[in-house]
Amino acid sequence: MAVISIERMGLLSVVCVSLFFSSTFAVDRGNFKTCDQSAFCKRQRALKPGQSPYRALLETLELSDSRLTLQLINDNNKVHLLLELYRLQGNMTRVKINELKPLKPRFEVPDVLIAEPPTEPLSVLSKDDNGVVLSLGAENQRLIVSARPFRLDIMEGPEVLLSLNSRGLLAFEHLRLHKDTQAQADGAEVKESVDGDQQQDEGKKDEDGESEKEEDGLWEETFKSHTDTKPNGPTSISLDFSLPGVEHVYGIPEHADDLKLKTTDGGDPYRLYNLDVFQYELYNPMALYGSIPVMLAHNTQRTMGIFWLNAAETWVDISSNTAGKTVFGKMLDFVQGSSEKPQTDVRWISESGIIDVFIMLGPKPSKVFSQYASLTGTQSFPPLASLGYHQCRWNYNDQEDVKSVDQGFDQHDIPYDFIWLDIEHADGKRYFTWDPHKFPQPKEMLQGLMDKRRKMVSIVDPHIRVDSGYKIHNEITSKDFYVKNKDGKNYEGWCWPGNSGYPDFTKPEMRAWWASMFAYDQYEGSMENLFTWNDMNEPSVFNGPEVTMHKDALHGKWEHRDIHNIYGLYVQMATAEGQIQRSGGVERPFVLTRAFFAGSQRYGAVWTGDNAAEWDHLKISIPMCLSLGLVGVSFCGADVGGFFKNPSTELLVRWYQTGAYQPFFRAHAHLDTTRREPWLFGPENTALIREVIRQRYALLPYWYQLFYQAHKTGMPVMRPLWVDYPKDTATFTIDDEFLIGSDLLVHPVTEEGSRGVTAYLPGAEEVWYDVHTFQKHNGAQNLYIPVTLSSIPVFQRGGSIIPRKDRVRRSSTCMENDPYTLYVALSPKKFAEGELYIDDGHSFNYDTKKEFIHRSLTFANNALTSSNLCPDCNFLTSSWIEKVLILGASKPSKVLLKMDGKETPVDFEFDTSMSVLTLRKPGMNAGADWTLLLQ
Amino acid sequence: MTCLHLLLTLVFAVSLGTPVEIQRPRGVPLTKKQFYEEGKPFTCLDGSRTIPFDRVNDDYCDCKDGSDEPGTAACPNGSFHCTNAGYRPMFIPSSRINDGICDCCDTTDEYNSGAKCENTCKELGRKEREVLQKMAEITKEGFLLKQQLIEEAKKGREEKQGKVTDMQENKKQLEEKVEALRTVKEAAEQPEKEAKERHLKAWEEQKAAIRLEKDKAKMAEAFLELDDNSDGFVSVSELQSHAELDPDADGTLTETEVQGLMGGAAQVDTSTFESVWTNIKDKYHSEVSRKEPEEPAPVETPPDEVKEPAVDNDSEPYPEDDISEEDDEDEDDKDDYHEDDDKVRVNIEKELSFDFGPDAEFTYMYSQCYELSTSEYIYRLCPFNRALWGREKNRPENNKYLVMKYEHGTGCWQGPNRSTTVKLTCGKETVVTSTSEPSRCEYLMEFTTPAVCQEPANTEPSPHGHEEL
Questions:
Q1: CB A87 within 8 A of CB A122
Q2: Which residues form the Glycoside hydrolase family 31 N-terminal domain (chain A) (predicted)?
């Protein structure tokens, strides 16, 4: 939602207008820093691989049960660092590096890890002058600490899995006194350059000139009209990782780029710095709204992860020894048996804080997900309704408008669950209030929606209008909860309401107060079917450097520089907590956020921000959400239709078809676009959109079960193919199709005027059934699928059972007691299995009272059996099994239902052409034990 | 178990106070009862298959057309009939059966969902009757008004047509006379002074008569224009709207000044207007010409910059700052008005060329503007200024006189050109009742006028007309 703001701002600032008005539709790159324009990145990147100046002082080694400490020394400047090594439960290693004696504490990111990670004992296998060998437990894994230069290698058997500082790019800018201060203080000579600089001699040669030059970015930095005073001087850190045998790395969202990360040689590194980017460009490494500093490395043998726990501005360089090679060159290597192994080298650079890295050793993809989940938690289990369809627009104008859109869905018989209100709903952009003319009776409006069993989301942004007549502002002021500028006064910046303050969400007291504002008696006009959307929480500051907060602003004793990337997480955290509290801890929250960090998955959903109504934006929604899913955030979606500009009808229909098969399914549109509710494009297109939204609703039981699984295990809901087919190299770069769970393969049509798509069906042993025609296809092939405007290529994996609710209703809540249809897709071995999860759909009772049904469904030996996965669970449902479809079946002579010791015959039909057996109305309760026998 | 519910239900309806009991499957309308014969195999209404009768309404969808499950939500495309005794019967999608939401006022759609529905049919029926009655009254009165409008328009049109014809005729005669004179002149080989003078005098008299005729026509025209409320009188206030008549040219036309112009009368009719006309004719601007040719957008809203204040005063109403932008723009027209004889004719012809509806019932809106003030803006609608009759999407044969469209208005800040759709409904008064901006810079106005009132079909509307037994 950045555009108009800037233009409206233009009334107040002519400068802004000239900056932001651009005739072409693209980001104004000039507003955002390149690595060269970010002093620490430029400084760090100037360091080239080579001999590291760091040396491990083995004599300082101390080993307690599970913690090893060791001092490192930079031979150039004699600064000592402290290395801490931990072996963590679940096959992980944690590496921490900090200054041994910093001038003052350096920032360590709190509130991301769900607990202090449990450790396992480390033991020293051998030790000599050159290094130490440590055992990493049972799996023949060792950690080798080399002393001179300092280097860490993680080995399994004879294989090096991963090395740290193997290219000598560890660089730790220690805290120091400013030159002037320092001269007065002790007069000692300390070289003012990057600590890791190897080129000591050269450095000495032109020391005067160099230090003069470097002064610029060290203690002060100016970008455009903004000056960053740097009272702490240079504080950046860097470390390199080598991944032998790895050619594919993924993750580190958020970037509008392909799923497989590219090498960054010759360009900018991938940047992680939460920014409100107006009209972002695709296929580049620029920073966007959120940051998750987690990278996955994958090859046919192993999947590993690197979690760089740092919330400051971060850049990630990727290089590869095979990147430059042509396919022919690679083949030549293979034929000639080239000794050179493929290798990917990664380098992380952050502006401040400490080095705190978690190495997740997998080896399976699912293991890496559970490892990361054990550190930062899993996806929150969303209310079932939030998996339905969301109708949003900037803005639904007034109560009348909301009512007529709501009625529109009923008139056109299209289900939806949530209608959204953007910033115009509030009284003068004062969040927690309602515009008295447009929304004079919010409760009446919410009650109207509740009567239809539907819900609403209102936006609550973290910029607070500075206005002495505004309760929220006054309370924050009186409690002294605002972020401060470098001079200790309340930080103020421009955002939607004009001059705004920014609450300091890093303060627990502030978050507790914020949460209390969602109580029904505080947030006037709110009701239990009103949920929340946190936008602009990067935070967005229209007149700030790079449209965000000044780095020298203060959060207590820490600089904004230290905490920037986690600010948005805290906003969503406090908001979700508020929703939980208002229900007395009973109801699950639903909060959407634009900015995020590692751990944000615990608080709700994210979307990919202000995209555009263009085909490429539709395409990029897939890798963007896949990347997020890999690093814990399953509840991801893109604005259906595209936020900026008007989509063509074809694009809109295709976007609905794609969005319906992505986790968070919300249509949204900019204020300046024409209306685009699903029924405004003629009856044919209304029918197409209706059909796909209904498909979404039919699959809600499957989505819900997958979210339960994600919540319990950390498995992503929407996944790249390689997650389930890790040995199939053909899947490693696919990001125009994806899996939902393990059992649905989706290849959306994302090309204009498409007449066909080629989908890769993975798995040599697999068969896949077209979910619309039930036609069977073999795996491990590229399948050409002719398409029309109504086609959505979706396949169910043979060997799976998917429960659906095929009855059409107005909202997910209306479907609560509806019966299930089981889609049993048989594998070539006539086997299938699946799960069914049922609870009340909205409360924490599944967790606190074990009120849920979790059943295993297995088809084997011509019998379909439902058995209880949670015998001590306790939940009653009135849903029943109305139909069973068995795909790939042969015709039985008789079908019997065995239940409660009785056998009753079941009617069936058999479609010979597609080998589909339909069991008519077996009728058992969805929570019961039963077996269906085919004879 | 949910699936085992009543196959048949007893439906009670009330007719003439006598309860009648009719048995048919749940959700089936009386008109289709014959297809659902108890105990006999049921053939799907699309003929696709035949099933045992016990599979009708057994909560499992057997027919592709949904006809076997009119009383359950089993089929995605079924429809459920509620009798709604006391109100009117209706069909709802069968997906709304037992979904926890009360759809039928007789509560019959929620027989197994636990939803607590109350029978509201009587109340709804009563309200509907009230509304219908009110509507009927409005329609009736509106239709009468419409007849008047048609009558007036007819008269006005005839007058104007007559005027145009006259003017054309006069012009023609004049030309003929000139031609005749020239012929005479040329014929006279030896010019005789006396004869020449006689001829010239006759020519002058002829010209004066024509001028007087034209002046009268202009006067009649001006009277019609000035008489805003069409009451047959030009009042002080009506005249006051013409600032150009200001005798002392101080920029304001005071009431006293107007009274002076009107010879002290509060209002004048056509006959007495003559004296007033002498006072004002040299200054008077026709509204017809004032509207020509360049006008601001017919629907006026403040520019964007004001509409979306970045900082404050967002809820304050805006000054009515753009009501009369036309006033200074017509300097050019002033001169040629009195000179150009054809101008009046052209304007009348232009007016006559508009489509004022099948019976010219919209004529009275010509040159009129209608305003609506909201908390934020003043909206002004000037029909036939730039309006074109429009059609609603997807309803090609809809009565085209129910929608007006204004397109290609002034551009919006980073948005489309402004456009407005006006929906006309029957009402006694001609007023803009509401405006909205569903999409940015696309306005929707609701506008009532007697001109769209239809002749009441039935003097006694009966909501129970179709009530089922």
A1: yes
A2: 84-317
Quote the tokens at residue A109: 């990111």
| Whole-angstrom distance, CA of residue A489 vs CA of residue A469 | 20
Helical spans, DSSP H, in A131-256: 179-185, 200-205, 207-219
Strands A92-99 and A455-459 turn out to be unpaired
Q: Residue with structure tokens 């550190």?
A: A375
Up-side HSE of residue A583: CA atoms within 13 Å toward CB? 19
Distance from the Cα of B67 to chain A's closest Cα (Å) equals 15
The pLDDT score that the predictor gives to residue B406 is: 80
Q: Could you identify the residue written with the tokens 């790019």?
A: A169
Q: What is the pTM of this model?
A: 0.83
Contact status, residue A666 vs residue A607, Cβ threshold 8 Å? yes
Give the span between the Cα atoms of A733 and A726, in whole angstroms: 12
Asked if B94 and B69 touch (Cβ cutoff 8 Å), the reply is yes
Q: How many helices (H) and strands (E) does chain B have?
A: 9, 15
Searching chain A, which residue's CA lies closest to the CA of residue B93?
A413
Each residue of A170-189: pLDDT tens digit? Answer: 999 999 998 766 555 444 44
Concerning whether A535 is annotated as a catalytic residue, the answer is yes
How far A679 CA lies from chain B's nearest CA (Å)? 11
Are B315 and A12 within 8 A, CB to CB? no
C-alpha closest to that of A594 among A549, A533, A543: A533
Q: For A754-781, give one letter per residue: b (16+ CB within 10 A) or e.
A: beebebbbbbeebbbbbbeebebbebee
Going by C-alpha positions, the residue among B450, B418, B452, B447 that lies closest to residue B433 is: B447
The pair of structure tokens assigned to A853 is 């049904």
Give the number of A-B residue pairs with CB atoms closer than 8 Å: 104
- Where chain A has pLDDT below 70, the residues are 1-25, 138-139, 180-216, 323-339
Pseudo-torsion of CA A796, A800, A801, A805, nearest 10°? -30
> Inter-chain contact A806–B76, Cβ cutoff 8 Å?
yes
Q: State how far the Cα of B94 lies from the Cα of A817, in Å rounded to an integer.
A: 15
Dihedral sign computed on CA atoms, order A712, A714, A719, A723: negative
Q: Report the C-alpha gap between A492 and B432 in whole angstroms.
A: 44
On the 0-12 / 13-18 / 19+ scale of CB atoms within 10 A, B43 is middle
Q: Output the pLDDT for position B284.
A: 67
Band of pLDDT at residue B460, cut at 50, 70 and 90:
low
> Mind giving me the DSSP string for B396-440?
TTS-GGGEEEE-S-SBPTTS-B-EEEEEEEE-SS-EEEEEEEEET
Mark which residues 272-311 of B lie under 8 Å from A by CB: 305, 308-311
* Per annotation, catalytic residue among A228, A276, A406, A535: A535
Nearest CA in chain B to A496: B310
Mutate to test the interface with A, among B101, B120, B392 (most CBs of A within 10 A): B101
| pLDDT of amino acid B307 | 33
- Judged by phi (left if over 0) then psi (alpha if -120 to 50, else beta), residue A424 lies in alpha
Residue A890: what are its φ and ψ, rounded to 5°? Answer: -110, 165
User: Which residues make beta-bridge pairs with A223?
Assistant: A226
**Residues contacting residue B50 through CB under 8 Å, at least 6 positions apart:** B41, B42, B43, B44
Q: Which two tokens stand for residue A466?
A: 């500075």
A390: Cα separation from own chain's centroid: 19
- Cα–Cα distance, B20 to B97 (Å, whole number): 25
Reply yes or no on whether A610 is catalytic.
yes
User: Are A498 and B310 in contact (CB < 8 Å)?
Assistant: yes
Compute the half-sphere exposure of residue B191: CA atoms within 13 Å on the CB side of its CA.
11
Residues B27, B97 contacting (CB under 8 angstroms): yes
Measured between CB atoms, which of B76, B375, B394 is closest to A808? Answer: B76
Contact between A436 and B315 using a beta-carbon 8 Å cutoff = yes
